[in-house]
Amino acid sequence: MTLKEIEKELKSMANPVHRDGLKRYGINTVSALGITTPKLRKLAKSIGRDQKLAEALWESPIHECKMLGSLIADPDAISARTCERWTSQFYSWDICDVTSILFARTSFGKEMALKWTTSDKEYVKRAGFATLVSFTIHSKEVSDEEILELLPVIEREAWDHRNFVKKAVNWLLRQIGKRNPILNREAIFCAERLLNSPDKSAKWIARDALRELRSESVRDRLAKKNKSG
Looking at the domain assignment, is residue 97 inside a domain? Predict the structure, then answer.
């Protein structure tokens, strides 16, 4: 499909009711058509990986074109420069999080994400943590030692009170703690340290993470995973 064909297809799928509903979740809908992510994923699957088309889609002003571009982009073909450019254009958490899944699959994603965690731009910083979340979830062969290196990054940035950053820092801490029993213990220790911080953001991150990481459901799942592994 060409860019024009895709834009026409997306416009035919527009749903104003869904678009208005997105606002309740803090999503910027100025350029949105109101298409659900499952529908975009289905369309992306029919198109397949196409880096050239992905970059063309990112030039479109339509929100869903950019989302679709992230879904069909090739992690083996995209350049670090393109990743940096796309990240600088983030304006909403949903496009940030979808694109971060792509970034985590590149060979340079983790290093790039660590750099972004120090950014003063809210969505760039969120992209750093969201990419590390995807890295933590999907990189099955990565050692515990490498994952543990992310805990000091969490502690360093837990002060950031901005909503989309704070939630991403918390997200990473919870995902680390749900990876296996050893990391669960270390993530809880990290959260306990944050809980002793005078910073309100750090305390919120800690309390919310501990609620899940100490939960019976997480403990049971990790125990079963430990036995099967």
Answer: no
**pTM for the whole structure:** 0.94
Q: Which two tokens stand for residue 68?
A: 């679709």
For 133-189, what is each residue's pLDDT tens digit?
A: 999 999 989 999 999 999 999 999 999 999 999 999 999 999 999 999 999 999 999
Q: Is the pLDDT of residue 229 over 70?
A: no
Task: Tell me if 69 is assigned to some domain.
Answer: yes
What is the tally of structural domains in the chain?
1
Amino acid at 202: A
CA 127 from centre of chain: 6
Expressed as residue numbers, the domain containing 38 is: 1-74
